[in-house]
Amino acid sequence: MLIGELSKKTGLSKDTIRFYEKIGLIVASDRCAGTRLYKEYSSETIERLLMINQGKRLGFTLNEMKQLLDEWSGGTIPKQEQIKIIERKIEEITEKTQQLNTIETYLVNKLNKLNEEVIP
Amino acid sequence: MLIGELSKKTGLSKDTIRFYEKIGLIVASDRCAGTRLYKEYSSETIERLLMINQGKRLGFTLNEMKQLLDEWSGGTIPKQEQIKIIERKIEEITEKTQQLNTIETYLVNKLNKLNEEVIP
DNA sequence: GTAAACTATGGAGTATACTCCACAGTCAAA
DNA sequence: TTTGACTGTGGAGTATACTCCATAGTTTAC
């Protein structure tokens, strides 16, 4: 698929997608178009972009997501190392979840207090 | 307390703390020091900075944290609005938690597969 | 066949969040 | 009393993550 379609399917701008390709976060193959080349994206790229976006909203940087997704698709890294990296990532996520729970508890308490004050 | 102490207690650099003060994320009172003024920070500022940092790692921007913490310390905003803002924040956090869980599930599955491959 | 809508490239510009530096005054200990 | 660690201000610089623009070739619908 071309960049316009990918953009619509992921909700990311064409510029963002081109930027991600430039920094090697996603890949594209070339497709002839007259004297020039258009970029052809696979449907897996949709999933990849959605995961990147999700990770970003959870406070991961693009570099962290790149690393994680590269482990994901395996490749050259030894399995023992992959395991370590994924274990570390799981720890990070557990930590983040706990922090979110702490904040949620704070917020729910605050909300209850406010509700009591408004409707006594 | 002065900035050095606050820096040590929060793990944030002095520059970062000064930057946060500049953009109104935290406040300080003035304390005379000869012809000049030193900044005096209250112990609540520690808590505030820790929450800001926690929020940041969870993907909230400084502006979002400012808004949230401003609601938190109440003030001029009507309670009905405070309630709405906090409810929205709780929703956001629930969403983030769900996304983290999704990613964690992916990662745990991947980890199990890898472990099976390494120790068959 | 031509206008509208798409594509690529290169480079400049923006927002966020710092980080570093130079310079200068302050304070506590030796 | 002086040295070293602290404090402040102003401003420049950096990293990350885009966003916009000009230019120019391509495709599609009419």
Describe this structure in words.
Two copies of one chain form a homodimer. Chain A has helices spanning 3-10, 14-22, 44-57, 62-72, 79-118; strands at 29-33, 36-40. In chain A, a hairpin with a 2-residue loop joins β1 (29-33) and β2 (36-40). The longest helix of chain A is centred in the last third of the chain and has 40 residues, at 79-118. The mean pLDDT of chain A is 89. The termini of chain A are far apart. Chain A contains five helices and two strands. Chain A folds into two domains: 1-73, Multidrug-efflux Transporter Regulator, Chain: A, Domain 2, CATH 1.10.1660.10; 78-120. The first copy, chain A, has 120 residues and is mostly helical. Chains A and B meet through α3 and α5 of A and α3 and α5 of B. The first copy, chain A, binds a DNA duplex (30 and 30 nucleotides) through residues 2-4, 13-16, 18-19, 23, 33-39, 56, 61-63.
Distance between the termini of chain A: 58 Å
The low-pLDDT segments of chain A are: none
The percent range for strand residues of chain A is 5-15%
> Radius of gyration of chain A in whole Å, from Cα?
20 Å
Overall spatial form of chain A: flat
Helix count, DSSP H or I runs of 4 or more residues of chain A: 5
Helix content of chain A: 55-70%
Biggest sheet record of chain A: 2 strands, antiparallel
Oligomer: homodimer
Question: Which strand order does the major sheet of chain A show?
Answer: 1-2
- Helix/strand structural class of chain A: mainly alpha
Tell me, rounded to a whole number, the average pLDDT of chain A: 89
Largest interface: A-B, 35 and 35 residues
CATH class of the largest domain in chain A: Mainly Alpha
What order do the SSEs of chain A take from the amino end to the carboxyl end, as H and E?
HHEEHHH
